[in-house]
């Protein structure tokens, strides 16, 4: 069935219930016997089983700009399958059974802009897949079995801006070799180091084994950095990213977060440090005028009073599951949501602080207290001799 598609600004053909075996020989007429193929710009296969992408497909539709072959059990791409596909811009081969790609398999795709290979069980992603001076801008290779991305894999893709490579087993991927990268997702891999390109705006690298972050000089474009569930013990590299708005460092191994780790002025709006090993948190020498969300929960903090001016400015403050004794929020604080449970509060200080915090902003409560502690407005506290 073929029809005019406004989305693709051309005619789209949808092929349904197509069956092509791995060793079956098909001709151009198999696809285009009753179609004016030169007018077709988009090809979509649905509810079909095609084990081999035949060379004649794109020979039959030389003006196709979009090819969607998803969920087809495809496991082989015939040699030369894209030799006549100079116009193809978007190629979707996701959720098939392609475990191996031959070098040069995409060399005929001079106009390729987007490539989707998610969910194929790919074991390798070798160099030499793309033509020289490729137009490739977005690639997705998520949910495969890749262990390495070689340093020259994308050498022929100078415009590559978006890379989706999460949920593999990647141990090596030098992101700095993709100089035009804008957004990269390498979450759920086995990386121990991440090198940040100078033009990168968004990096998703959670659930790895990262213990080192490297930047080639200052990056004034990076806006979002997600590094939760890694092995970080040091964040001095944060000072190189003055435009950061979101920094997610949950579930790492940090013990100290201090002013020297940050640029003198930062645009951070969200700072997440939950589930580290923090014993020191002191950002008194940093301008954090835009910070709105601060999560320090599940750490080993005992004193945070030096940060009172900062705490007054945030809207959401999470301090639960520490050993904090006192807090010094002012009556002019901006708190809209605060968690204080499971700490070592001094009762006198807690009573005073609850008077300056909006009642509706206080979330969570302690169900029972340790011996020697009492329950005060659903929070456990103890009389301390504070000097």
Structural class category: mainly beta
Kindly provide the radius of gyration, computed on alpha-carbon positions and rounded to a whole number of angstroms. 28 Å
Please tally the helical runs, counting DSSP H or I stretches of 4 or more residues. Answer: 4
Q: Return residue spans where pLDDT drops below 50 for at least 5 consecutive residues.
A: none
Through-space gap between termini: 82 Å
Total E-strand runs: 28
Mean pLDDT: 93
Described by strand count, sense and barrel closure, the largest sheet is: 17 strands, mixed
Strand content: 15-25%
Q: What is the overall shape?
A: elongated
Helical content (DSSP H or I, runs of 4+) = under 10%
Written account of the structure:
With 387 residues, this protein is mostly beta strands. The chain has a domain at 301-386. The protein has helices at residues 29-32, 56-60, 308-313, 347-356, and strands at 2-5, 10-16, 19-20, 40-46, 49-50, 52-53, 66-68, 76-77, 90-92, 114-116, 138-140, 162-164, 183-185, 193-196, 202-204, 212-215, 224-226, 246-248, 256-258, 270-272, 280-282, 293-295, 316-318, 337-339, 345-346, 362-363, 374-376, 379-382. It has a 17-stranded mixed beta sheet, with no helix packed on it. It has a three-stranded mixed beta sheet with strand order 25-28-27. It has a two-stranded parallel ribbon with strand order 3-5. The longest helix has 10 residues, at 347-356. The chain is elongated and about 90 Å long. The termini are far apart. 39% of the residues are buried.
